[in-house]
TrEMBL record:
GO biological process, one term: translation
Pfam families: Ribosomal_L13e
Swiss-Prot/TrEMBL keywords: Ribonucleoprotein, Ribosomal protein
GO molecular function: structural constituent of ribosome
Name by which UniProt lists this protein: Large ribosomal subunit protein eL13
Protein's UniProt keywords contain Ribonucleoprotein: yes
InterPro entries: Ribosomal_eL13 (IPR001380), Ribosomal_eL13_CS (IPR018256)
Listed GO CC annotations: ribonucleoprotein complex; ribosome
Top-level taxon of the source organism: Archaea
Family: Belongs to the eukaryotic ribosomal protein eL13 family.
Length: 91
């Protein structure tokens, strides 16, 4: 986990990015499933109202190589930001 520069309240853990597994051509149209990713894409952060610098300060991993924007990651980020604001964390 990236070390947050902002002190987080107890019980509030940064979410983990979830990405789709690579598709194997030999298996055909089989859904490969999902796995933990290296970090959130810049598009996901932008939709949640964050930039890369703020995200890293909040202890989130950022993967600048990813271009996909998964709705489940955006929802997780929005919930995380909302919980931080409820706890009074300024960023």
């Amino acid at each position: 986990m990236a070390r947050p520069r902002v002190s987080l309240p107890e019980g509030v853990e940064p979410p983990k990015a979830i990405v789709k597994k690579p598709r194997l051509v030999k298996l055909g149209p089989v859904d490969p499933g999902v796995r933990r990713g290296r970090g959130f894409s810049l598009g996901e952060l932008a939709e949640a109202g964050l930039d890369a610098k703020k995200a890293r300060k909040l202890g989130l991993h950022v993967d600048t190589r990813r271009r996909t924007v998964h709705p489940w990651n955006v929802e997780a980020l929005k919930k995380y930001v909302e919980r931080l604001r409820e706890a009074g964390v300024e960023f």
